[in-house]
Design brief:
Helices cover 16% and strands 33% of the residues. By secondary structure, it is of the alpha+beta class. It has a domain at 21-144: OB fold (Dihydrolipoamide Acetyltransferase, E2P). The chain is globular and about 70 Å long.
Length: 178
């Protein structure tokens, strides 16, 4: 009985670690057949469909009607988190009805969302006209800021002044022999 209970606890913790970050209700709406490349080339043909997208925030704009995020698309892993960007399929705009604080939604933060395709917008990046697919937010997850050295430990990981790797075969590197 004890081992069965322990097994159930361990398996439930393991399965909770593999859970998706979006709600089940939002994920049911998503049409998984739509790729970002297809959406970028012809956004007007997917109006009204729901997509699961993610990437890195490239900019934020707010107006009286709500906020807009400009996101550089990145592929999502199995839990819905944007992967480290080796390549990008392009950019898209996330339209919301709420105010998006520029200090919270900063450039470089990663975001995942389920949204409804609303159409397209054309804006300029430097001097180039760029066609953005526009997606209205249904559910959005803002990921924690990535810090490259957060898990970096300086060498040695642990220093023990009494540990000697040459103990059985004591070598004397110093002028003192004791």
């Amino acid at each position: 009985m004890k081992t069965t209970g322990r097994l159930i606890i361990v398996l439930s913790l393991f399965m909770a670690g593999c859970a998706h970050v979006m709600s089940e209700q939002s994920l049911r709406l998503v049409d998984r057949q739509i790729t970002f490349e297809e959406l970028r080339t012809a956004p007007e043909s997917y109006v009204g469909k729901f997509v699961l997208l993610g990437g890195t925030i490239a900019g934020v704009r707010n107006s009286k009607g709500g906020g807009e995020l400009e996101v550089l698309q990145a592929p999502l892993d199995s839990s819905g988190m944007p992967e480290e960007q080796q390549y990008s399929g392009g950019r898209f705009i996330v339209a919301t009805q709420r105010f998006l604080d520029p200090l919270v939604y900063t450039t470089g933060r990663r975001v995942s969302l389920v949204g409804e395709v609303k159409g397209k917008k054309t804006r300029t990046i430097d001097e180039v006209e760029y066609l953005y697919p526009v997606v209205a937010e249904v559910e959005m997850r803002l990921w924690e800021r990535y810090e490259a050295d957060r898990y970096y430990y300086q060498y040695p990981y642990y220093y023990d002044p009494f540990w000697n790797p040459w103990w059985p075969y004591r070598r004397y590197y110093y002028p003192y022999w004791w």
